[in-house]
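tool=predict chain=A
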Amino acid sequence: MHIVTVDEMRALETRADQEYGLTSPILMENAGRSAAEILARSIAENDSQKRSLNSLEFLVLVGPGNNGGDGMVMSRYLERWGGHISSYRWKEQQLTVQGREVAAEDVPAKLAEVIQRCDYVLDALLGTGRSRPLPESMRALLGRVRQEREKRAALQIIAIDLPTGMNADTGEVDPGTIAADVTITLACPKQGFFFFPGRDYIGELFVGDIGLPAGIEQAIQLEMLTGELVQSLLPERPLNSNKGTFGKVMLFCGSPAYPGSAFLAGNSAGRIGAGLITLAVTENMLPIYASAFHESTFLLLPAEAAGSFERVNSIMNSLEGYQALLTGPGLGQSPYIREVILELLESLRAMPDEKRPHLVIDADGLNNLSALERWWTLLPKGTVITPHPGEMGRLCKGLKVSGGNVDRLELARNQAKEWQVTLVLKGACTIIAAPDGRARINWQANPALATAGTGDVLAGMIAGLLAQKVATFDAACAAVYLHVAASDLVSAQIGHTGLLASDLLTQIPRAITRLKEQRGRG
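tool=predict ok
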């Protein structure tokens, strides 16, 4: 599902008109009907009181442009299906209550009554084209709705295309903007939905069909991660399989100060389906891992006193047949470790492309690299890096990187291209960028993931999918989606507070199963 800017959406509509004869009225009719169908279906499935449309009252706030037109078409279908419709045309200050026009002098009082008793407010005031501050009269109208919802939690706000006052490109919001319970966006998700503060105003997101020709948006290089897309990326599990079918992962991770990193990353690689996991550890660390991770095999590394070359040589001599190598989590940032990482990268670059395992670098792997000039020139082809905003800032030599603002998107795309890596820029809506300009954003976000070790789990998941021969960009995308999906399963049981990274591990295969079940039902 492609994500669009305002200009891209306009261009799609222009092409639909000029090349396919899909005029604005046709698109508006399609949009309104689709939005009405989505809302009606959502009410039927989710209304806690199991109410039908003919018992519900809807107030449609109608603006002067196409967004208002979409809202009017939507209300026509809801009324046809039994809903009780009132509409307030903001520009004309005209109110219609269930088919009867209200006299001008009675509008303020009648509007207040409708707001106080309606079940749903449909925000169809302004669409994607608005970037200036809202007029004060519109802010006042939205303010009255906000006050009513504060008194009456059952009142539901439905945004048509996007919440009025939100910038569709940046996610900035006007002070008058109301947070929606549900946003039914039209044709494609808008770029601003994925960045803050706008992300907090969207609520549950649905995408309505306006009838654009299939494939018309294929040239757009920004996509939203969806369950349907991720399901299509996951490898098959044929009956005549063995552990070699699903690949081998080696992990050079962990240290006496951070032993949990290797366990979390290795376990998650196995939980997402890799056939064999090998931890490269020193003898003094072996008892810790052997007692906690029974399924792993081990490569015993020379102690630090043996020198960096011996340790790298030991890893390289054992890499044959491995499809993925993860390094970084929990290694620390000593001069010795930095030297090991540099020698390991040099040895990997010297390998033939067809024999080199896919490399994933996370955490201290990135921190050690960030101390070097032009560090990206040291990476072998096809590397995946997974920085959080702080690590990304260090890789960019002190640049301040936000955790959720729109500047992240351009930065991720530019740096993936410059560094020639698949870049996973972690955050509330994680961005995955490829060297060729493609990018995907994960819509689902879970604050429960803001805890130590969850990044190690994600890095291991990416390595596990790479071992199963999933393409580099696709493996990163699928892992990001399933990582959040697993956290949602945990949160469904314990809430958003208190998740530990290890809680995710058993939920990874459950997230995959749930995805397959949803596809089967869909």
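The longest helix spans residues 24-46. The radius of gyration is 26 Å.
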